[in-house]
Amino acid sequence: MHKILFSQEGAEWATAILVFVCGAAAGHYASEGMNAVQWAGAATAVLGSVTAAVAVRVWPSPVRETVDE
């Protein structure tokens, strides 16, 4: 259970869900009517979640070195 939570694939799925939820919440509240400050906050949340998703996908995997004794 913990391996999927802390793996690369788990991080990719989690950020994809984050993007979906942020977009859905922003769209829902936009349909009810928002002022300019709320629009800016929603746009920041969506862009932040997309940035996190991109960072997870392009961040290099850690290199594991073998130690010869």
From TrEMBL:
Could you tell me the superkingdom of the organism this chain comes from?
Bacteria
- Originating organism: Phenylobacterium terrae
Q: Which UniProt keywords apply?
A: Membrane, Transmembrane, Transmembrane helix
**Sequence intervals crossing the membrane:** 12-30, 36-56
Q: What is this protein called?
A: Holin
